[in-house]
Known about the structure:
8-stranded mixed beta sheet, 22 strands, Pyrv_flavodox_OxRed_cen, 2-oxoacid/accept_OxRdtase_asu, oxidoreductase, Pyruvate:ferred/Flavod_OxRd, 2-oxoacid:ferredoxin oxidoreductase subunit alpha
Amino acid sequence: MKYNWKIGGEAGYGIMTTGTVISKIATRSGYHIFSYFEYPSLIRGGHNTVEVVFSDEEITASKWHVDMLVCLNKATYDLHKHRLTSNSIVMYDPDIFQPDIECKKVPLPLKKIKEKQEIHQQMLNTVAVGGSISMLGGDIAIFEDILKHQFARKGQEVVDFNVRLAKVGFDQIKADNVTPLSILSKKNETPEKMVLTGNDAYSIATVGADCKYYAAYPMTPSSSILMSLAAWQDQTQMVVRHSEDEIAVINSALGASFAGVRSSVGTSGGGFALMVEALSYAGIAEIPIVVFLGMRPGPATGMPTWTEQGDLLFATQAGHGEFPKIVLAPGDVSEMIELTLKAFDLADNYQTPVIIVADKFLCESFKDLFKDDVDKTLKDYSPNRGRIVSSTTQSPYLRYKIEETGVSEMLIPGQKGVFFQANSYEHIEDSHTTEDSEARKKQVEKRNKKWNTYLKTHFDGPKYYGDKLADTVFVTWGGVKGIVQEAQKILSREHNKNVGLLHFNHVYPLDEELIKSFFKDNVRYILVENNSHAQFGQLLRMQTGVNLNEKVLKYDGRPFWPEELVKYVNGESKQIHNDVPKSEDVEKPEATSDLEKRQDELLNKLAAKMATA
């Protein structure tokens, strides 16, 4: 069973919260979930939507067909009806519109409920959740328990009010004698689960890695990391700083790292662009730093709230001059936890920047994990700080001593009688500035040795999933992983095709000989990337000589659908796109406030003047 529940409405009306709640209800009922949000870069207005797929087996991506569409306005129906089937359920307000395609219609009179209950439009999402639970055969008591935890700090009165609204929606469906489904009926007790986004996973692992300084300037899709870590400060004793800009973000974090604590920053493409000069400083001063880079479509502001894998080459080449850096790209929330822990160790061990790149799809999609598995990963982890020390026996102290591994001892400042500097100039071993050619050559070679040491010691090659004898193999990196895994299931079950997956999460640098061993003759390799330049394909060719000719690329701001990849493998579609109505074909919602009405009037007058000019 794989069931797709989707809700849509205007921004500002709690659509995102609704999706999180449904995800938690499904996991507490014993199901696995995957959910994803889409929203415009607006505070109010526009169209927000979230879909939650719940299944009785692990699921790693959404699916194309929507089984139940909850419409808080007509625009939701207009925008998403092309994904409905005759068996799909549409929950709608009959006083606003009537579905015009063949489907199962479930009326929910939201407008009348709003007037009768004397509530604001923002509260109707709670009514809709109650109606959805009733229609899907779920347990309303689970929702009540979630509400009690969610609104506990606001007092019992707020809890009771939301519980009452949920029951209004729940009872309304019952009163209409609609035959409920048993999709969300509670299964046998299962181990406790956590529902996490990629950003949540990074936040948890950052705490687990004993990071003590995190700085950021809010920028979608990385902003929630800043909010989560700030909310946990009392428990974690981490200093969390909302800096005035990204230049201050990374420079303050480098200062904290130089002083001896593990430090991290979070940003997206435009903010990362401001950080690259300081990234070079970290390279020459050999200061560890972990950078979280949440990718969204560029260039410039681009599409701030949509997804893309467009910053990979930027991350690998960021900073002027030549210096080693390491780039990791988790494919799911589990990998995000594991690789974040590893990133802090790598940053310390090699005294260099480590960049974690994650597309918005991974940053903000929800996935369930067993809590015991997360707890075990964190419990088994022990920080490895490499050659970072609080005291030294060297005399004189050589901060940049030439070492075979490329890694010299890094002393935390403060030892009596020991002096050194960490400025942005080239230096000799004792850290004094130099412009001597021979000294320069030796320090460049010293830093470069770090890469060889990393590739021999800590680099992990790609992981293979599926039948090892498969004659067709997808090649992926980052958040595309879960989508391809769902496509593999469909190809196997419905088309009797075994297709493999070769997934990279250590993406820079790459070990040439190791990587080449994974590619075989007479196998069809298909590179799948959410960008238009096949950036990982370029990186793979540049670093290893492996050239992948067949590519499936998508760059419209939307993630792949598993069904798209299935069609591609089967030769049914060479053009990957989203078949959605144009915005001008969708009926625009009425203005919902006096301000919006006045704005509409002014725009209409302006349009009339321009027409007669």
